[in-house]
Amino acid sequence: MFANVPPPAPDPILSLSAAFRKDARTDKVDLGVGVYRDVSGKTPIFGAVKSAERGLLESQTTKAYVGIQGNVGFLQSFGELLFPELAFAKDYTAVQTLGGTGGVRLALDLVHLLTPNSTVWVPSSTWGNHYQLIKASGLRAKTYNQQKYHSSTSAALAIDDLAQAQSGDCVIFHGCCHNPTGIDYSEAAQDELFASLAGRGIVPIIDAAYIGFGAGFSADAARIAKIIRRFPESFVAVSCSKNIGLYRERLGACFAFGESKELVTAVQGHLESLARGMYSMPADHGASVVEIILKDHQLCEHWLSELEAQRQHIKQSRAKLSDEITKAGGDFDTSYIANGNGMFCLFPMVDTSISRLREVEGIYIGPGGRLNIAALADADVTRVALGLTGSFDRGLLDSDLQSP
Ligand code: LMR
What pLDDT does 152 receive? Predict the structure, then answer.
């Protein structure tokens, strides 16, 4: 069976991390995979997480199975924080998943089970793994416009593309902090986009892996809730990797919103049976930790303040990088870098420049010119800005304002 197995195409993001680890240069810079780094270059464990873990170590009395849905205390508490105006188990349900990725995959698998001919609309620039997830679930993908290097104060191009979406189709939308562009629609443009989709039998799948890094935790959650309220049915895949720093614990959830308690209960049953057929049930450690945090007012406030500090730090790094590119002679409007949300932005550069920066200068940049600004140390900003400015491609910048 294994004879003549061709090697798979390497994952464009995670293979970069592997190459970085092997690189012996001491001045190498990793702007690839989306992890936050503090001023000392570490990806810290949140203080609230450490406290909760200490409590868990003492209080946990069994490691018996939890159940297919996962940790209901975590799901309910997280749901109440995210969607305070909606009722868990009545307006929506949730299943704990392996990170936000697992949440998107489970939603897509359910869509495939219920409407196998659905098309999934994804932004023309998106997290590359979306395509793998759509393919693995058996659905097909089409794209709608997503600007890469210009702020999105209008959704007109996306609305044009999505005019072709049919009833039963799904639209993947990045809840906040678009990956890889960092460009979120202005609130008015987002309203305009979803107004154009509402009432057409279209189901949003909101990939919300970065809640808390955009305009702040409750503001980001409120923007997502606003979308949900427009649609009778929708999914939200959330992640605790970045905003609670639990990357390797693989904690996330698939929230499914429906029109009645009966419908959401049936949906939950299907999500559980799909999970059972894939991995049976999720791991509990991260979920128990977050449950402790969310149920303890002080710990919850502590976690939110730590998250806010990371958000502010990233904002400062964005502004510095934008300034330094201009100082290095970058003759274009870099305000989309300073004003973008979350960890990422795209820099207009072609693949050969990305490889050259990696090979010659030891600066690791993600696919398509994606920079993880959340990992950019102050000491490296000037050097990175110079490298980027020397790699700038005006043709890419100019072609951004057209539909895919
Ligand atoms: C990223 O986009 O870098 C992260 O979401 C990590 C991943 O799994 O790709």
Answer: 83
121 Cβ inside 6 Å of ligand 1:
no
Q: Any bridge partners for residue 346, and if so which? A: 370
Do 81 and 160 reside in the same domain of the chain?
yes
Give the nearest ligand 1 atom to 366 CA. Answer: 3
| Per-residue pLDDT, 401 | 73
Same domain, 142 and 263: yes
Tally of domains within the chain: 2
Cα–Cα distances (Å) from 392 to 318, 325, 371, 397, in that order, read 17, 10, 14, 9
pLDDT at 368 over 70: yes
How do residues 219-246 score in pLDDT, each as one tens digit? 999 999 999 999 999 999 999 999 999 9
Angstrom distances, CA of residue 18 to CA of 15, 372, 394 = 5, 16, 31
Q: How far apart are CA 276 and CA 13, in angstroms?
A: 28
15 three-class SS: helix
pLDDT value at position 359? 96
CATH code: domain of residue 39: 3.90.1150.10
- CATH number of the domain that residue 210 is part of: 3.40.640.10
In a domain, 77, yes or no: yes
Instruction: Find out whether the beta carbon of 368 lies less than 6 Å from any atom of ligand 1.
Output: no
Active-site annotation holder among 107, 158, 165, 209 = 209
Ligand 1 binding pocket includes 127 (Cβ within 6 Å): yes
d(CA 26, CA 42): 16
Domain that residue 368 falls in:
12-44+312-401
113 domain-assigned: yes
Residue 382's pLDDT band (boundaries 50, 70, 90)? very high
Does 7 map to a domain?
no
Which of 207, 220, 284, 380 is catalytic? The answer is 207
Q: Within a domain: residue 39?
A: yes
Q: Is the pLDDT of residue 339 over 90?
A: yes
The verdict on 141 and 239 lying in the same domain is yes
Same domain, 194 and 223: yes
Catalytic residue among 242, 256, 303, 374: 242
Catalytic site includes residue 158: no
Per-residue pLDDT band at 153 (split at 50, 70, 90): confident
Q: Indicate whether residue 126 lines ligand 1 (CB < 6 A).
A: no
Does residue 39 come out as left (phi exceeding 0), alpha (psi in the -120 to 50 range) or beta?
alpha
> Are residues 53 and 37 part of one domain?
no
